[in-house]
User: Which sequence fits this backbone?
């Protein structure tokens, strides 16, 4: 890209400042003096530029400069950037006793995930320790969005009105690859606008999540710097006044919404006293224990080119891991924790509410009328799922944990007994309310049983609506909500072919070892293993599209590969994690699978095929097929 002269000189200026900061000139002088002493004393020959560069390279100075300048040259001088450096952590007391990891030893790691104005970053994983060795820099573009004229450089006053925080999520990954959400923090970066030289250092105290949201987990040292440097900084009074005004405005909107919600709830209870036991959820707590209106957890989310259809979106959401929010102590109580989207995606797993919120947001992004439903499954277990309303009145339920879809046909309780009623296939029993980013309805039909529910949302005698204006006042785009903006989805970092091969090799070893312990030898049939591929592809296609295809060819190929008088047995199994040892343990618990792994007989040949299907983020569906053939 060619730069206008004034921008080129600005870039030169930035590079010059960077070199001064590193004291490069001082280092070159030292090397020059040393080289002259060592190499030139005898003949006083001329010192060429090449000699000097060689000497600088040997001492690693050129590498240091290039590392710094690589960062500088990423800067487009027509835009404003915030350079955020994480310079280590301290007081992560839970890891006080942790021994230093030996070189090459696998240990638990910390990773930081950042989101700011549609940009996402991830730090390098560092070993968990009391003082984790974070040393990462992130170049966040502040001025890129639809704010005015792209060629005009924003000044400090304009940036003060950009109230998006930097969302920082800390994830711990254990030695088995299991992830835990450690902390979720919203960094107010605008203090740098009032800092001298446009540089400020902050010590950020991270608090735990869920039941530990009041407990400190550790401190991060963060340095913030503006690029290019601001010509004029603001006074701390101005920035503090702005922050106070914003807090006041948000608090006032939330207070008014709370007043409205209480009034709505009183009216709802007046319709029928039994309504007080229905699952009508107006507020929910996030991972930091902060209450938000449920509507603010939903936003139309477009997946760019990462997902092509609503059903593919449902498949993606279903292969994100399911894990109930951890609760301390017994009693079977359910700890409530509706995660922010960044925390859910970075952890790669969450509760049913996280799945339903994400699926609803994606379906809205695909232009469907989608709602999250709050109700119960069998035995009165609270549950959330998604519903779409077609233009022809068709109501479809989507189970976000499995990707299954069910058409809803209500039973009419007033029909005479001989009239045949539809048999519901879905697992849902009762429904208390439905909501999306703009609407909220409380179910006020005589019964809250799903099977008799009529989804005529315009009939206020069946569904009591909340005021759209009230919802808009606390949910974007009408306002800056206290729930952060949604991050964009990222493409999968996983290489499907390499991962499939790795898991397959590990499984072969595990099967061979297991058979050896039983006194059995193992002979692998590579050709038969390869023939299992089409079946795995067909299973995944069926999960995504509900269409099965290609089964005839698979069966024909297997018949040809298994000679007369031989028996073939195959067993497919599906996982959403990539841990071969854990998958093998699960396989052994299945009687069919165990029968194949421990097969005895004449001319026994074993086969295994693994196929990993990747989805956005780190989500993946792992299909494994174990098979054997032997002489009957």
Assistant:
């Amino acid at each position: 890209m060619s730069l206008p002269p004034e921008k080129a000189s600005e870039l030169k200026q930035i590079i010059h400042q960077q070199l001064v900061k590193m004291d490069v000139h001082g280092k070159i002088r030292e090397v020059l003096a040393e080289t002259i002493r060592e190499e030139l004393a005898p003949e006083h020959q001329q010192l060429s530029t090449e000699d000097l560069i060689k000497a600088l390279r040997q001492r690693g100075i050129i590498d240091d400069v290039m590392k710094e300048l690589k960062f500088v040259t990423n800067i487009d001088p027509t835009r404003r950037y915030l350079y955020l450096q994480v310079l280590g952590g301290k007081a992560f007391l839970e890891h006080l006793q942790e021994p230093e990891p030996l070189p090459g030893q696998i240990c638990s790691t910390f990773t930081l995930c950042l989101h700011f104005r549609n940009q996402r970053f991830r730090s390098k994983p560092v070993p968990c320790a009391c003082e984790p060795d974070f040393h990462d820099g992130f170049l966040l573009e502040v001025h890129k969005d639809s704010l005015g004229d792209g060629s005009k450089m924003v000044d400090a006053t304009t940036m003060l009105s950009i109230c998006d925080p930097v969302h920082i999520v800390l994830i711990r990954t254990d030695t088995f690859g299991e992830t835990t959400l450690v902390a979720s923090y919203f960094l107010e970066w605008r203090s740098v606008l009032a800092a001298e030289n446009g540089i400020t250092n902050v010590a950020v105290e991270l608090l735990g999540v869920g039941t530990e949201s009041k407990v400190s987990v550790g401190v991060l040292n963060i340095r913030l710097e503006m690029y290019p440097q601001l010509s004029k900084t603001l006074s701390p009074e101005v920035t503090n006044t702005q922050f106070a005004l914003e807090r006041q405005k948000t608090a006032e909107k939330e207070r008014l919404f709370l007043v409205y919600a209480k009034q709505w709830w009183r009216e709802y209870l007046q319709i029928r006293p039994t309504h007080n036991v229905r699952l009508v959820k107006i507020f929910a707590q996030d991972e930091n224990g902060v209450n938000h209106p449920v509507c603010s957890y939903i936003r139309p989310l477009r997946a760019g080119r990462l997902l092509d259809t609503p059903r593919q979106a449902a498949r993606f959401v279903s292969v994100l891991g399911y894990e109930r929010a951890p609760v301390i102590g017994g009693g079977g109580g359910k700890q409530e924790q509706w995660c922010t989207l960044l925390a859910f995606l970075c952890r790669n797993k969450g509760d049913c509410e996280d799945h339903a919120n994400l699926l609803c947001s994606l379906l809205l992004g695909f232009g469907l009328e989608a709602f999250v439903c709050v109700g119960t499954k069998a035995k009165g277990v609270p549950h959330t799922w998604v519903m779409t309303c077609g233009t022809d009145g068709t109501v479809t339920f989507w189970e976000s944990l499995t990707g299954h879809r069910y058409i809803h046909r209500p039973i009419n309780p007033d029909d005479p007994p001989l009239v045949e009623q539809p048999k519901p296939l879905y697992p849902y029993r009762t429904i208390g309310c439905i909501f999306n980013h703009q609407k909220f309805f409380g179910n006020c039909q005589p019964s809250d049983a799903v099977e008799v529910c009529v989804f005529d949302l315009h009939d206020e005698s069946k569904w009591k609506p909340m005021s759209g204006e009230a919802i808009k006042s606390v949910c974007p785009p009408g306002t800056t909500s206290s729930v952060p903006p949604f991050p964009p989805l990222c493409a999968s970092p996983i290489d499907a072919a390499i991962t499939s091969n790795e898991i397959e090799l590990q499984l072969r070893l595990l099967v061979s070892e297991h058979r050896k312990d039983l006194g059995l030898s193992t002979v692998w049939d590579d050709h038969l293993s390869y023939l299992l591929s089409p079946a795995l592809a067909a299973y995944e296609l069926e999960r995504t599209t509900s269409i099965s295809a290609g089964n005839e060819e698979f069966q024909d190929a297997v018949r040809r590969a298994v000679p007369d008088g031989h028996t073939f047995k195959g067993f497919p199994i599906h996982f959403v994690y990539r841990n071969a040892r854990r998958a093998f343990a699960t396989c052994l618990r299945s009687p069919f699978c165990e029968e194949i792994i421990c097969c005895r007989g004449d001319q026994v040949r074993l086969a295994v095929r693994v196929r990993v299907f990747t989805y956005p983020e780190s989500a993946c569906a792992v299909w494994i097929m174990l098979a054997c053939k032997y002489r009957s």
Observations:
- The radius of gyration is 30 Å.
- The longest helix spans residues 236-271.
- The longest strand covers residues 602-614.
